[in-house]
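Reviewer comment 2.1 asked that we show a complete input and output for one of the modelled complexes. We chose the magnesium ion case, as it is the one discussed in the main text.
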Amino acid sequence: MSELVIEGLRAAVGGREIITGVDLEVASGEVHAVMGPNGSGKSTLARVIAGHPDYEVLGGSVRIDGTELLGLPAWKRAEAGLFLAMQHPIEVPGVSLNDALTESVCTTSNADVIASRMLAEADLMAFDAQLLQRPLNVDLSGGEHKRNEALQLCVLEPKFAIVDELDSGLDVDALRMVSRRIEEATEHDELGVVAITHYSRLFEQLRPDVVHIFAGGRIQESGGPELADLLEAEGYERWADAQPDPEPAANPFRDPFGDPFADLLT
Ligand code: ADP
Ligand code: MG
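Response of the prediction step:
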């Protein structure tokens, strides 16, 4: 049994504090949903945990089984058992998914074992096996990107996975297949999941144990699975005030040839 523990995490990008104090504990086999409005900092949280170098950590701690991840390069965090399925996976021309995965696991498994695992996972997710040989994420459709991320997750078998908007771009059938496969990994392989999304449809197959409402760069409220349905029905308006500092509003367009006194009449 493993544990991912986040305490008092704060982080900034471009001189602006986006993550304003996150505490979260996830145990093996658990699914934690993190739901919140656009721009609330969910992807920033995922990138900070994974070790994206553009983000400045201002304080706090992220540990897997007592190992502090903050300060480690991303690959060491992966070695400690962390995986991030990205909202917008990056294209890596010249490196196939097959090569990337084989390199990732060659220290712990042999290439033949990996090849057969990749094919088995591709089959489970109705993922065209030819995509394994194509350059990573190059010219893939939205749905293929997401299956690609899920396939990597299932082949690499991390202790904890953060999945960021896995549902975006997937059609209903593909979403069902992929989320059921991840649910299975939580049941059989003790995978712990932090699932970031705005929509409760991800949770038809992947059953959350806890739902956290994330706004203003922190968790505002936590509850049971019913919170996901409530949020989808009612939206995030209650937490609108919790948004991080808004970007300065652009000046409204003024027509230089318009009536200069128009404002006075309204
Ligand atoms: P969410 O995933 O909840 O929609 P994000 O984490 O993507 O939100 O963004 C939160 C805020 O942080 C936004 O205002 C976004 O513009 C800002 N932000 C995120 N990454 C960067 C970056 N690399 N540079 C500047 N601003 C960023
Ligand atoms: Mg996001």
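The pocket of adenosine-5'-diphosphate (ligand 1) is lined by residues 13-14, 18, 36, 38-44, 54 (CB under 6 Å). We note this here for comparison with the apo prediction described in Section 3.2.
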